[in-house]
Amino acid sequence: MTLQVRHPVNGAVQASNAATFRESLPDNGALHSIIVKVNATNGSTAGRGVDITDVVDEIRVMADGTKQLFVLTPLEFEKWYETQNGKALQADRDEAADAVQEMVFPIMFGRELIDENMYLRLGAFNSVELQIDFSPTIAADAGFATGTVTFDVVLLITPEAEAGQYLGTLTTVEFRNFTSAASGDAVDEIDTRNPIRAIGIFAYEAAIADGVDLTRVRLRVNSGEFNLLDLDWDDFIIYNRELFGAEVEHFWNLFIQNNDTLDTHIGEILNVALQAQTAVDTSDDSFQRTVPDTIAGDRLTFDSGDVDITAASETITANAADVLVFCRVMGMSPSHFGLISFIGNDTPEDYLDRSQIGKLETVLTQGGAGADVRLAVQELQRF
After folding, report:
1. DSSP-assigned states of every residue in 286-347
2. Which residues lie closer than 8 Å to 70 by C-beta, 6 or more apart?
3. What is the 3-state secondary structure (H, E, C) of 114-141?
4. What distance in Å separates the CA atoms of residue 228 and residue 211, rounded to the nearest whole number?
5. Strand partners for 22
6. What is the tens place of the pLDDT at every residue in 55-67?
7. What domains, with CATH codes, occur in the chain?
8. Cβ 137 vs Cβ 50: under 8 Å
9. Positive/negative CA dihedral, 307, 50, 272, 296
């Protein structure tokens, strides 16, 4: 099998600040993965509180105009990747003035980056197109500089005649999104007859802990004849930890003042490490001190101060000027996300056989209003 690594898009700067980036894919070959890199440059003062998940709105791969092969928002993408791969996406999160932020999104049509037997047969369609909606906030202090969104696209592709036996294509597509209510069950049918590898449930509200907005997850058959899964949210996440075992770390270069906040997108935070990027001033016995003051859900609030240790006149003054601080946050799991998994030994025989069951529904019990809830299904299709 001869792998070709093609680079059709290299540093394509987008003139518009809100548009859809489009790249037509080749018309033949076995496409294993698409690696998408997105960059954007911070404003002239800072990129306070934003990263590439605030630039990209949705990532899609479409066939013949309307056939969805891949559809996820960047935060969903991040959680799917972290859970299934046990590591964080490649990302450069940097709030400094004029810094270039970056995130890499590997879109895989098989079980791994290069799967000899599960891939996308490009020749099965008249056209296949990568589409990325983007709309960054343009601002000098809490956003990005105008006209700086940039895309790179790398294709991992094999001549179809050299690929292994074709078992199918893994497609990952969001099929429902809504804002959680304070109570009640949200019921959604999964309308597919293809084998299902996994169903992803994403529920995020800034500064709200896991298990508050959604409290219970069920996957039921024939409107309640029996359940394939029935767990409260906390145990659903524990189940995912046992299956996938992902502990996730995210890194930032922060530009903060006292009482600034950071929404980490990590719940059940285990550890926060902060290091001010300023030298101790021996001439006046002073240095910078920054610590996490409070943790609410995924949100950190910082206590940042100027410390003067001059003998007999020691003081700590709240920091009213921006200071660069290196930040590392570790979470117990990706959080705000779980998979109803039928991966097993990861062969088609392990996936949920839809021909053997009737109506299939997710039932999500809501406990708090305001979460962005998104459901996606990963299924094995043959084209």
Report:
1. EEEEEEEEEEETTEEEEEEEEEE--TT--EEEE--S-EEEEEEEEESSS-SEEEEE--TTSS
2. 59, 60, 61, 107, 109, 171, 172, 173
3. CCCCECEEHHHCCCEEEEEEECCCECCC
4. 20
5. 131
6. 999 999 999 999 9
7. 4-167 (2.70.9.20), 248-331 (no CATH)
8. yes
9. positive
| pTM, entire model | 0.95
> CA 98, CA 12: separation in Å to the nearest integer?
19
> Is there a contact between 329 and 264 (Cβ–Cβ < 8 Å)?
yes
The edge-to-edge listing of strands for the beta sheet with 323-331 is 248-256, 323-331, 269-276
Report CA torsion sign: 375, 138, 103, 93.
negative
* C-alpha–C-alpha distance, residues 32 and 118, integer Å: 8
Give the model confidence (pLDDT) of 84-97 as tens digits: 998 999 999 999 99
Give whole-number Cα distances, 329 to 30, 191, 271, 309, 310, in Å.
38, 38, 6, 29, 33
Q: What pLDDT sits at residue 288?
A: 81
Q: What are phi and psi of 188, to 5 degrees?
A: -140, 130
Give the DSSP letter of residue 113: S
